[in-house]
Specification:
The protein has 257 residues and is of the alpha/beta class. Helices cover 34% and strands 17% of the residues. The protein is built from 8 helices and 7 strands, in the order ααβαβαβαβαβαβαβ. The longest helix has 14 residues. Bound molecules: S-adenosylmethionine. S-adenosylmethionine (SAM) binds next to helix 5. It comes from Ottowia thiooxydans. Its EC number is 2.1.1.33.
């Protein structure tokens, strides 16, 4: 079971989808290989209403003609009289529970969330409306492309990747998001001193994260190995249930040197 399912995501598991095309050498994600599959999932009435009412204000269109999304967001926020101290990118926010929680704790930080699953986008917008949150922008697009085309070098204060799809089966491991070439790209987008915080409940993926983050010369581990869970990351219902059953969760926090 995966983290997102406890939040009401579609039951269809991405790893049920076969993928036959091999990845090209040295390319983070050749277009034949993506870290996600487009899942069926019903948009609820509340999510649809949030998409219609709040989407126009908070959803940012994917546009490779905007090479510095952080600056563009800062400019449009300033036009509305708001200045943010920091900008954090979250990749794969699922239903957005952690995103909304952290955005509520850190009102002076702008959170840019990428998620491809439309019910998740609707769910986060709904939470934003309910919690009166203004400091989140959403891209409903592949984060790999967003990072490559829209995030300028050294523009982010932080990156969150919570419970990325683990792609358990050996033949699917190549679809994991956190691999060396992509980690290098992530690191280049951080400001010096900026951080990347990853969490997973799948130990082999935790080990892979530790290995690839640890091997990236632009990053330094903030802990000896795995980190203690930072207070801002909430425990999801799924995670609490897993912890009660004795399942592990691993957090990793690395800083740009
Ligand atoms: C296992 S879920 C975890 C969701 C959430 N972070 C949580 O902790 O509940 C992983 C999410 O990442 C999204 N995802 C995977 N690859 C992505 C990509 N390249 N760009 C945007 N979203 C992606 C999936 O759609 C899915 O919702």
């Amino acid at each position: 079971m995966m983290a997102g399912q406890a939040n009401g995501e579609a039951a269809e598991h991405p790893e049920q989808v076969e993928e036959h095309q091999p990845p090209a050498e040295g390319v983070p994600f050749p277009r034949a290989v993506r870290s996600f599959v487009t899942r069926a999932g019903r948009v609820t009435t509340g999510q649809a209403r949030a998409l219609a009412d709040l989407g126009p204000r908070y959803i940012v269109a994917y546009d490779p003609g905007t090479p510095d999304l952080v600056a563009a967001c800062a400019t449009s926020a300033q036009a509305q009289g708001k200045t943010y101290e920091k900008t954090v990118l979250e990749i794969g926010f699922g239903m957005g529970a952690a995103t909304a929680h952290i955005a509520g704790l850190q009102p002076d930080t702008l959170f840019i969330g990428c998620e491809v699953h439309e019910p998740g986008v609707g769910a986060l917008l709904k939470s934003m409306g309910e919690q009166n949150l203004d400091n989140i922008r959403i891209l409903q697009h592949d984060a790999v492309e967003v990072l490559a085309k829209m995030i300028a070098p050294a523009s982010l204060d932080g990156i969150h990747v919570f419970f990325p799809d683990p792609w358990h089966k050996k033949r699917h491991n190549k679809r994991r998001l956190l691999q060396a070439p992509f980690v290098r790209e992530l690191a280049t987008r951080l400001k010096p001193g900026g951080y990347i915080h990853c969490a997973t409940d799948w130990e082999p993926y935790a080990q892979q994260m530790l290995e690839v983050l640890g091997a990236e010369p632009l990053l330094a581990n903030s802990a000896e190995g795995y980190a203690a869970k930072p207070e801002y990351r909430p425990l999801t219902k799924f995670e609490l249930r897993g912890l009660k059953l004795g399942h592990g969760v691993w957090d990793l926090v690395f800083r740009k040197v």
